[in-house]
Amino acid sequence: MSGSERASRRRKRSARAKRTGPSKSAAKQAASGAKPKRATTRKRAGKAARQTTRADKLTRGGLWVIAAPSGAGKTSLVRKLLERDPRLRFSISYTTRKRRKSEKNQRDYFFVEKPTFRKLVARNAFLEYAQVFDNWYGTGREYVDKVRDSGYTVLLEIDWQGAQQVRKRAPDAQTVFILPPNAAELERRLRARATDSDETIRRRLRDSLGDMTHWREFGHLIVNDDFDAALGQLAAVIGGADQSHRTTLPAVRARAKAILRTAKRSSAPATTRLENWSGKAI
Q1: CB of 209 closer than 8 Å to CB of 97
Q2: What's residue 222's pLDDT?
Q3: What's CA 161's distance to the chain center, in Å?
Q4: Chain segment 81-98, per-residue pLDDT in tens
């Protein structure tokens, strides 16, 4: 296109603009003295809104430690809670024991050799770890952080000793202790499993009665005398909707002490162990 043709086109566009005049919106803005809106302003606002939405979705999840004596129903409660709330995730532990045929690595456990486990301990890679008979088990710090950073709340189902370690390594962790309604019901539940000898049941009962004395170390206490009620209470506590189970409340402390008095009235060996573990008679 020659220079004369380009100049001719510019003159024609200028003439059309003079005939039609400014658009209604432009005229309105000119009359009011307002500056024309820029598309970049709207783009910035939209971008900020999208960033805020993404940040809300990726709010860091919580960490809840749930402990209980054997026979209190902790495992059943945690399993049902995970089924009903998709925002919760169960922590996958590391272990040095051999994998069973039905188990899958990184689904049931992170299966590692003992030298690898020792290296992880040296690197402070665990929130808690313990030896159970000939094998080691531990909760990986990196795995828990990754799940929490994805916006999920992580549940740790461990004993009171593991809970002590988690409190030191993850100060923001929340804790719940599950108690049976009384020592007699605890023994009934242990015997109802029908998988252990009488001697094993007596040992488990003694251990459980000792475990019960550590309820004071936890932030919340739930008594599993009715499964559905206890499940609802646990869900409400973890969801932040129920603060009535805090162990600092007089009513909660009174009920826990009443339950432990039933343990004290049980068999003499159990009573001796209970008093030795608690440091004083209740």
Answers
A1: no
A2: 97
A3: 18
A4: 999 999 999 999 999 999
